[in-house]
Fold:
Amino acid sequence: MYKKNRKNFIDLCGQWTLLDPVSCKEYPANVPGCNYSDLQNAGVIPDPFVALNEKQTEWVSKQDWVYEKTFDLTREDLFADRIFLNFEKIDTLCDVTLNGEKIASVSNCHIPYSFEVKRFSKEGENKLSLYFHSPVNAVIQKQKRIKCPVNNNGLTGIAHLRKPQCHFGWDWGPVIPVSGIEGDVKLVFSNKGRILQTRVKQTFEDGGVRLRAEIQNEIYGDDTLELYVKLVCPSGETYESATIAKDKNVVEFFIEKPLLWYANGMTNCHEQPLYTIEKTLLSDDCVLSSSKKQVGLRTIALDRSHDKYGSNFCFYVNGKRVFAKGANWIPTDSYPARTTEKDIEEYVRIARDSGFNMLRVWGGGGYESEYFYDICDRYGILVWQDFAFACQAYPFFDDEFLQNVKEEVNHVANRLADRACLALLCGNNEIEAMTAGWALRRKFVKWTKTFFYDILPVELKKYDDVTPYIEGSPVGTKFLKNVGSDNVGDVHLWAVWHGFQPLAYYKTRNPRFCSEFGFESMPDLKTIAKFASEADFDLSSEVVSSHQKCRGGNEKMKFYIAERYRLPKRFEDYVYLSQLCQALCVGEATEHWRATERCNGSLYWQFNDCWPTCSWSGLDYYKNYKAVQYEAKKFFAPFSLAIEKKKSDVKVVVFNDNIAMQKGVLDVKVETFDGKELFSEQIPVEVEGCSTCIAKQYDVRKFGGKKTLRNAVFVATLTCENPQNVAECQPETIRKTMLFGKEKNLKLPKANVTVDVHREGNKAIYTIKSDVFVRKFALFTKQNSPLSDNYFDVLPNETVRISQTMDEGCALEVLKNDFEFKHVAAIAPKSSKFADSFFRFKTLLSTWNLLNYVWYKFFM
Structure:
């Protein structure tokens, strides 16, 4: 055992003071935190998430604020060779002073800061002060010097600031440009030396893996220090090395029988094997500095080679093809410091359990916490990491801005390079395509190309020559060449929703990789009740409209609901049907792309929300599952199926994302809504690893005439025969159904549905039965955990059991009166079919909508 050094840091998190420098009023503050949250806690501003309060709080971002804290240092503390003041995250424009002396001015929210402050420190009381400049005023002033092109998402000129762009509003987010100390703050005492960073390189050779750890140290004097390095394997086996510490030490370990890291669903591992490298810097057995780094043993590649369709865009892990399944990750809270490690773990665990193997960290936000990448490493979630540039023209030609950005890029590349989860570094989100609107601002266009195609890749290679890089998303073959093409790169498809194309549009597109597409829906009714009163439960109410940031969003939801269903009378039925449309849109697109050999990924927009709102998310702000999140467990399952219909031909396609061959049984039947069987057969299936097969193809005319089939359902059920080979995210059975027409055109029967509930341990068990076919049964309870399944079809005389973890202290009698349910046939229409059709016609003919329709129909 080694002796620990004396006190080596002071935690400066906790209670601070927030000062208004104009009025000199002081308020209690918490760090990590932000000015909005502290003012809300002090009763100065209302909760901007509620009702119309967002507008009432905008003044906060238009003035300066000061955070202050005092702390004591002893004479012994000052004996340290070095004293470092470390900030994990400062958001954003800030002057840092200690005891009245300015230490630094900072201007980048995306990088940590460390200052040597021994000469500013004193025995006794010390005063630390951070003066935050208004981000809004800063944008206005910087815009006077360099005029950026107009920003259609809000305040023009936000590209000047290295701060999450979505803080200034987006088509799903509020205008809450916070300022504050959003990460840990520590005063660190260091003697003789410290470990700075470690980079790990992997070489696969002779059936094993060689790890080369390059450890950078800072040695302050002439003392001889020892560096002790230990490799801890997932099995608990250890390898050790001790050497004299230098500015740079290289330590190698060879692992003869490596446990390889794979993406979620490729093996039966619920958590991926990780190897830990522990480093300790010693002086006479006294610990001076220590750190740990976890690595997963794997290779990652992005194949963009030419093929018969154009150019591929396919990820490979350890040489095995990955069909990327997942969603786009946005910031989890408009008050960034409010997100806890528990929240992060829950989000990523939900992604894993929903069959995700990839999350795209979107460039309009930023870079996530170390813990986020830790959990993605553990759960096998590949990370597509955008650099923090999105939908703006950035002044890369300005030397000060460019230097700031280079420092950010270098930090990010160094920080993330050794992550097992890191699959891709992407230059930006949608900027290249937007340059078409900057025809009169050629300097911005030129420097967009120069930065993302020349400067950024060169900077990256200094620190990370392994991780694949693309210049932006969507990406083509070169700057402004084939961007958005189905034959190369990745695409963002918004013809459904923004372009008013039909829900079936996705089946007409066969991209190499779709990294953005989606459909807006309402959040859970429990979430709406947190920001709106029942009197406001109306799509056109001022409160509900204020939580809809997409132009014409609520009308678009109604437009698409009316394509497939009848427009309902009740507000809560709009919530239900909007979620059905979203699940249908994302599910059918994903299954279609999985069924083609040319597409390699489906990442829907978006996974999560940053506030309670109407959006494209699968999880609302309070982590309530929407219908698409329940469906994702099926259409993203490693061993799954899809029903593909084209005219009278129907084929059942089976997917296997596991690296091992999978066996299963496919049960296919067609039965009427009242339970009469028209056809059935059972088919054994075998699907090779990381591949797809057509299990069976049918001509639907063999099942009956049009009149018969309008009252029937096609059912395909897949059961895995070797469950020991599949991941825990794999359902025991997966069932897909297909109707022979749109719900609004069918006579779905009135059903006698019963729901019984009993308790098993801490689980509520709901048993659902129906005498006839039920389309998209959905159960709604007041419990806070998700159901094991929801938004599913119930076949005639079938019994379905689903479960839910009960809230602590909940009694069974409460449960029995705690739920309601819906299904499509039970939704009362507001008016006639003609009125629904006329609404769609009228909506489409509005000038803005018609322009979008024409643009996406003929030019995208």
